[in-house]
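Q: Please design a sequence for this.
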């Protein structure tokens, strides 16, 4: 053997050993997770409206309030007597029997970063500034508890804007470790050339993965010769599942929206909103436990007036709040109602709980200010954590309800005040996660997954 052949063989051995070690390490991890017991066949989709949903224009209108509060829009009747939504949500109105509205959510953080952390972790953050979590997000808790539930599937996926990371929306795992963060699916799945890079092996890596399979096969044959014990059979089983996760065709196919019927894709809408929502349903069917669908810009043509904003942050300096709504809400209406109808049509309404919310609401009282892009005075609404609304659907819940209420001006909870903790306690119950469970922080102190809140009994 010459020197070049020796170096090539040595390099192949090192590479194969590293990849084999990775598969074996994953096998050990999944063996430990599987020992934690079985989980119910349930899942959660979170539609995250970053920037905050204006409750006064969507789910909790106040038609009798003064004009400086009620704004341009009027409530419309829905399929459930006594429940109204904003006039720009007619598709919601037709299926109100399939969802609930929570109108009394509240917390104390008026900045995007503090509110993101407060809502997405269910805990009061140590600092109101910065988007990096000091406690795990809800999705990361789910990932930690349920990652071994279906070892050939991704437990936690976040469909979000390209160029963003786990901290952009306070989805970090904190003391659980980065391995329990979300698998990121960035970009616009409504585009034909959309792809998820992490699920496609680079051509130069294909031979290495094939070599790893051959090497593992040789190890397996060796083990068969030296030990036929049940423990070895179990080891082979977990190692096989670990390898399947690393090269899962099932996961790749879940991301291939071209496999969907065109009529279904049209029902969701060919926007970022619609196709990310459809992707979430496909991932759930492929075994994912928690999908975060980030809805910022719908990805459609920007109006010529440029009086709209990228996300839901409808300050007057950012946008004309009502013109922005006229552009944004129809796409939101189509995507969310399409997802709800699809879950029910496919018999997933008991398995999947859908949560639609942002980090807070927006001020009931309208302010006027010169727009940065338009240069003219225009109306807007600022941050408002005093009270806000959320939609929940599926999960085997009783639906067609409104829980909680705000006062006559939409400023504070009036009846049945709810915190983010109540919402997540209900989500954990749906997923079969023990609310008393703890995980050690970096100092080794046991931290409860949810320090406060209780299940919303009216939803069960």
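A: Design:
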């Amino acid at each position: 053997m010459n020197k070049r052949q020796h170096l090539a063989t040595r390099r192949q051995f090192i590479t194969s050993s590293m990849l084999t070690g990775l598969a074996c390490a994953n096998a050990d991890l999944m063996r430990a997770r599987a020992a934690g017991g079985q989980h119910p066949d349930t899942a959660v989709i979170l539609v995250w409206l970053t920037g905050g949903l204006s409750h006064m224009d969507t789910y909790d209108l106040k038609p009798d309030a003064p004009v400086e509060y009620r704004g341009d829009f009027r409530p419309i009747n829905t399929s459930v007597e006594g429940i109204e939504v904003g006039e720009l949500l007619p598709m919601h109105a037709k299926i109100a029997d399939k969802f609930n509205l929570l109108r009394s959510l509240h917390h104390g953080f008026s900045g995007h970063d503090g509110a993101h952390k407060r809502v997405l972790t269910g805990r009061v953050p140590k600092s109101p500034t910065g988007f990096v979590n000091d406690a795990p997000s809800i999705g990361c808790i789910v990932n930690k508890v349920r990652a071994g539930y279906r070892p050939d599937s991704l437990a936690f996926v976040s469909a979000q804007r390209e160029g963003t990371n786990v901290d952009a929306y306070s989805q970090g795992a904190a003391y659980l470790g980065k391995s329990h963060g979300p698998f990121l699916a960035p970009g616009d799945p409504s585009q034909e050339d959309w792809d998820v890079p992490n699920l496609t092996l680079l051509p130069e890596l294909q031979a290495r993965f094939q070599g790893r399979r051959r090497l593992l096969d040789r190890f397996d044959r060796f083990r068969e010769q030296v030990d036929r014990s049940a423990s070895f059979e179990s080891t082979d089983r977990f190692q096989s599942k670990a390898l399947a996760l690393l090269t899962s065709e099932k996961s790749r196919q879940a991301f291939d929206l071209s496999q969907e019927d065109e009529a279904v894709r049209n029902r969701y809408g060919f926007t970022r909103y619609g196709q990310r929502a459809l992707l979430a349903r496909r991932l759930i069917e492929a075994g994912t436990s928690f999908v975060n669908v980030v809805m910022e810009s719908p990805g459609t043509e920007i109006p010529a007036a440029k009086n709209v904003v990228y996300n839901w942050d409808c300050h007057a300096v950012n946008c004309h709040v009502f013109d922005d709504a006229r552009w944004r809400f129809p796409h939101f209406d189509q995507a969310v109602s399409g997802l709800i109808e699809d879950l029910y049509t496919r018999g997933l309404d008991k398995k999947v709980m859908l949560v639609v919310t942002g980090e807070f609401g927006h001020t009931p009282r309208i302010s006027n200010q010169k727009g940065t892009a338009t240069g003219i005075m225009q109306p807007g609404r600022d941050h408002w954590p005093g009270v806000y609304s959320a939609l929940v659907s599926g999960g085997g819940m009783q639906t067609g309800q409104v829980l909680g209420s705000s006062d006559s001006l939409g400023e504070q909870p009036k009846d049945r005040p709810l915190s983010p903790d109540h919402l997540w306690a209900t989500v954990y119950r749906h997923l079969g996660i023990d609310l008393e469970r703890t995980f050690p922080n970096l100092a080794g102190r046991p931290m409860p997954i949810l320090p406060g809140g209780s299940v919303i009994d009216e939803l069960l």
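Q: Thanks. Anything notable?
A: The CA atoms of residues 384 and 407 lie 14 Å apart. The first strand starts at residue 43 and ends at 48.
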